[in-house]
Amino acid sequence: MTGSVPLPGPGLALGPGPEFDRIRKIIGLLGPQGNGLGDDCGLFPEGDEFVAVSTDVSVEGVHFRREWISLEETGWRAAASALSDLAAEGAEAIGLLCAVTVPANASEPELLQLMAGVSGAAGAAGSKVLGGDLASGPGWSVAVTVVGRTRAPVTRGGAQPGDRLWVTGALGGARAALEAWLLGREPLPGARARFAHPEPRLEAGRWLARHGARAMIDLSDGLAGDVGHLAAASQVAVEIDLDSVPVTPEAEEEAKRLGIRVQQFAAEGGEDYELLVALPDRFAEADGFVSECGIPLTPIGKAAEGSGVIFLLSRRPIELKGFNHFG
Known about the structure:
By secondary structure, the protein is an alpha+beta fold. It is built from ten helices and twelve strands. The chain has helices at about 20-30, 70-90, 110-125, 175-180, 190-195, 200-210, 225-235, 250-260, 260-270, 285-295, and strands at about 40-45, 50-60, 90-105, 130-135, 140-150, 165-170, 215-220, 235-240, 275-280, 295-305, 310-315, 315-320. The protein has a seven-stranded mixed β-sheet with strand order 7-9-6-10-8-11-12, sandwiched between helices. It has a five-stranded mixed β-sheet with strand order 1-2-5-3-4. Helix 2 runs parallel beside helix 3 and helix 2 (about 70-90) runs parallel beside helix 6. The longest helix has 18 residues, at about 70-90.
């Protein structure tokens, strides 16, 4: 992956890709009304805090299939993916709004099952369901808007040359489930859980914000794609050592079945909802993070002067692809 494309108007630059080419054109169309776009959340000041707002949509046949996961899991997953944007901002969740498109032949109990999942994810995040909307359509679609607050937001745009890049948890679990389903197999239980029941890293995001995080992004489109946005927004070059990337056991097993290098498999997978964070080189509190947050924190790269992203596997450059909605 190379270079970044300047953002038209004030805001954070986005990395390359057809989806983000369209967003750049939208920002250009909006003019001054689009100032400040380009981060995981929209921010506006309220007293001595910032309110963080983000929205995410899950579409049947694109983000999930009914034969793979239950409607309750669909609701949880849709809410968790939106809440993950608050985690990347270092924000506390206040609440969410949920707009659901319901197929004409769907029953009321099915709708309630989906909303039970939304409610469960909101409750697990310490937030509430504040409102929403219902409409009828050809398939299920769940649009979730989240609202949070933070005194010191962490955007994608603060990484500095010399910073190290760290990642929470382990990668590849959701992709392991997806690949198994596509091949007609039932995923391993751990992989299925990572796909159907992701956990937004809200506590981890707040901890990292308190301990010097300079830039942060959640890994929804995969490490291979999302790191480019952090690099572009921060106007730095990033080098990722794929041999250091933590991989779930289920991803290792699935990658070996498919004959794909394990680290490549994990880095190109999406919907892990872990956090990629830039921290000063002097940061030495990973053990404290593990103790308080209960998940690993692993150094996987570094920022330098320049632009673009280089991935190294066995010390050799390798080209990777992230998820692309319009590719």
